[in-house]
Amino acid sequence: MTKKQQRTVILLMLLNGLAFIVIFLSVASNYRLAADDFHHVVMTDQLGIWDAMVFYYNNWNPRWSSILVTNSFLMNGTNNNVLFSFHLASLLFGFVAFSSAASAIGKLLALPFRSWQYWIAGVYLLCTTFYTSFSQADTWFWITVNPMYLWGTFAAVLGTSLILHTWNSLIRRILVIGLFLYVGGASESAAICSLVTLIYVGIRFHGKSQARFDATALHLATIACIIGFGISMAGPGIAIRREHLPHIPMQDRLLIGFWNYIKFNLKEIPLVLPLSILFAAPFGFFGRKHLRFQLISIRHVFWQNRNLWILSDLMILTLAMALGLVMSEMGPTRVWFPLTVLVLVVTVAIAYQLGTWLYVHSKGHLFHLVVAAQILTFSYQAVVGFTQIKTSNEYASAVDLRMENIRSNLGTDSVIQLSPLPNSGWLLSAEISSDTSHFTNKHLGLFLANGNRYFVEDSLSSTQ
To answer: I need a surface site. Which of 37, 151, 204, 393 has the fewest CB within 10 A?
Structure first.
């Protein structure tokens, strides 16, 4: 691996990362209020950020920490610049989380990389996570729920990286407590997956001097996450929410949970795995020169990573069973986001460790394969990503025109039929239902303060 080859791969990673940033922010600039966003705008305007959180905590959604973030932005939700700033904040949060994680692991493995290279890795990992998500619309582009699953997982990644870092103990541990307190109150899936990881690592390395992380910070993270999760689970709103979920016998829910586990492993994860492997190619290139892994074979890699396999399986099983017990189904794709990060971690780790094996079996052409993979990655972004900009532009224009037409008829008492919106692409659609009693119609009517008088003929209901 020459320095010229290394610079070329880093440059290609940077190019893909920058392409992702341009695509993401271009699409994000076209985000418009949708579904539950309207309700949060109204409640926050009427009650304020904190009291609106208390309202949801008592009446529907007890995810207190993420609701506070949602309310903070949607307090000025009618301003498109504020909506854009939220997605910019998501991008920055993810960048900081993955850059910190890359730096922590790099220092743990004594890798000869500089800070700016970890920054590029952070952008690239964020790019990979975006494209390998089970869904973009409700995972990345819905302000009401993004602080729950997306930000909850980012907080867990950043908090975990701080446990691995060694700088100022007091400040770092305070940050760890705050981040995992947020994770616990953000969403059940982020909290459950984080607790599985924290508890497993705590048990696995308990009393062992070779543990290369801050054990005190790990324990504080576990306690903070439990407290945050406990506050969320104690909310009266959770009982009200469960009344709207299917009521079936416990044994049937357990079977559904086990079936979820099978579907995750045999259907959902395999669907995103090829793309994750494609994006992970550069890490195999850099892993080739790591002496620790130069003699490892593809057969031995499974045994060498047994703790990673056990932890991954526990996370998938726990999340699958929790969804079966609570929702009696797999739940919406946004809930699965922690598994997206899990797939990322596994593919990057395996690609890095198999660098030498890949070099030998490609007969010395690993660099060319990685360059080809990076060009293919950029081409994928150009075809899939850049086309989304046009789609989102058309969607945003249609939403703006619809809202103008609605406001021009606010003085009438008649029921108004709206023209269907075009495809929203990656953005969560603000489309409403042909049924005026649907929750999307109600939220829009509440936002406009003139009842549920809007419907769309021959359209699909928004059920996100």
So the answer is: 204
